[in-house]
Design a protein that fits this description.
Elements lengths: L2 H8 L3 H24 L6 H4 L11 H11 L3 H9 L5 H15 L5 H20 L8 H28 L26 E6 L5 E6 L4 E3 L1
Helix pairs in contact: 2-6, 4-6, 4-7, 5-6
GO molecular function, one term: DNA binding
Protein name: HMG box domain-containing protein
Keywords: DNA-binding, Nucleus
Length: 213
């Protein structure tokens, strides 16, 4: 979704959406109550896709997904917005509004809270070694990996300086040991570092190893 669409959606407050879709919200909430009473809801086993070890869906998202797939919330939004690309974002915001206005001790919200608990238990039994990884954690791991690669390069440069090794700039391939000769088929990433010899230290990475000359 483009920034322009997100900005357009964010400009509409929840109060604006409630005024615009008030009748739709009431009708969809009634439909939700009927589907739960009639057992027209998925079970925890059905929600847990075979072989999928992703983090199980929480109670609010279970409810919003049900409002979209079974209760016709998106269909009602399409009647107003047409086939606009922002339809899904508006639909999910309306689902969140419905979830927040449900009674915390009411049967509808309690149903999805219980369903989420069952989903977590089944997921835990099927994937006992699963450890959730947040986006922030994944970014930190990536940055740390990059830091280790650059540290390796800097350490190598310091060793060269300590031993006063003059790198072969005219033919950098000759500087590498035979087993580290760079294949022309490798995808190369270039890095440049300043050297006390007033030459450029070149580094190539094939994704697994760093080559310095």
């Amino acid at each position: 979704m483009t920034r322009a669409i997100k900005k357009a959606c964010s400009n509409e407050s929840n109060e604006d959406l409630i005024k615009k879709y008030g009748k739709v919200l009431d009708e969809v909430q009634d439909t939700l109550t009927i589907t739960i009473s009639n057992g027209q809801t998925p079970t925890a086993n059905e929600l847990l896709i075979k072989g999928d070890s992703k983090k199980p869906t929480n109670s609010s998202m279970l409810c919003i997904n049900h409002l979209i797939k079974t209760c016709g919330l998106m269909d009602e939004v399409r009647k107003v917005e047409g086939t606009s690309k922002r339809t899904m974002q508006i639909t999910r915001r309306l689902g969140g509004i419905l979830w927040k206005r449900m009674d915390c001790h009411g049967p509808n919200k309690l149903f999805f809270i219980k369903l989420a608990q069952e989903l977590r238990q089944i997921h835990k039994s099927k994937f006992p070694n699963y450890k959730p990884t947040s986006k922030k954690s994944a970014i930190r791991q990536f940055k740390f990996k990059q830091f280790k690669q650059f540290k390796h390069v800097n350490d190598h440069i310091h060793i060269m300086n300590d031993h006063q090794i003059q790198p072969n700039i005219t033919n950098p391939q000759n500087y590498l040991p035979q087993q580290q000769q760079i294949s022309p088929q490798l995808t190369q990433q270039d890095f440049s570092y300043s050297s006390p010899y007033q030459h450029e230290i070149l580094c190539y990475s094939d994704g697994n190893n760093l080559y310095i000359f």
